[in-house]
Amino acid sequence: MLTIAFPAAAFGTNCYVIAAGEGEECLVVDPGIGVEETLREVLTEHRLKPAAVLLTHGHVDHVYSVTPVCGGDTAAYIHSDDRYRLADPLGSASPGLVEMLEQQFGRAATWQEPSTVVEVHDRQRLTLAGLDVDVLHAPGHTEGSVMFGFDRLPDGVRAPEELDRTMVTGDVLFAGSIGRTDLPGGDGDAMQRSLRDVVLPLADSTLVLPGHGSATTMRRERGTNPYLRGLAT
Predict the structure, then answer these.
(1) Domain-embedded: residue 233
(2) Cα(20)–Cα(152) distance, rounded to whole angstroms?
(3) For residue 195, what is the domain's CATH number?
(4) pLDDT above 70 for 12
(5) Cβ 189 vs Cβ 226: under 8 Å
(6) Which of 52, 56, 89, 113 has the greatest number of beta carbons closer than 10 A?
């Protein structure tokens, strides 16, 4: 599975481009702030065409570039509980964040909702760009936070663990940490349930590609992540 990751221009949000191979259709996951130029370069280099945009949740640092990436008829996929956020993600952003965007990009921050939005739900299996994608609803960071699972590994993965699956976790699970729950729509109790009932059952053989920071594995997080240790499934 061809997998390219690069950080957005703000907040270090990871944008992922995933395809069955070179010259194929691809999935773009979480196109954040200022990713358009790098994304164009990636698509051109690998001869890829976006078939869909997958959004792990509706925060502005994960969805800011979704509309220019989607273009005309490419759909954006988001959980129904976060669908409302696509109406105006800047509206819930702090004035300081909006000011930062304007300073960094030299123009007023604007937003236009993507023309085609598909709502996903828990335990749904999508078939997109020749790939099967499992949707796991894991609220807590936001109401509609999800993780996207693939029964494949990125090309060239070398790790001491036996790995056989990939999970794009958004802001649910990071290497050594989890997503914050003190923002609007966050819920600490819901996050604890998601960690216990959705994250912990993931096999140790799962490669974790988070929304921020470096990749990790479930084996590593189960043994070292302080937010997982002590939880019981």
Answers:
(1) no
(2) 10
(3) 3.60.15.10
(4) yes
(5) no
(6) 56
Print the domain residue range for 7: 2-224
User: What is the tens place of the pLDDT at every residue in 99-157?
Assistant: 666 666 655 566 678 889 999 999 999 999 999 999 999 999 999 999 999 999 999 88
Q: List the structure tokens of 196.
A: 């216990």
Number of compact structural domains in the chain: 1
Residues in the chain, total: 233
Look up residue 84 and give its DSSP letter: G
Q: Quickly list DSSP for 89-100.
A: GGGGS-HHHHHH
108-113: long-range pairs with CB below 8 Å, 24+:
111/64, 111/67, 112/67, 113/67, 113/86, 113/87, 113/88
Residues 6+ apart with CB under 8 A from 111: 64, 67, 88, 89, 90
Identity of the residue numbered 202: L
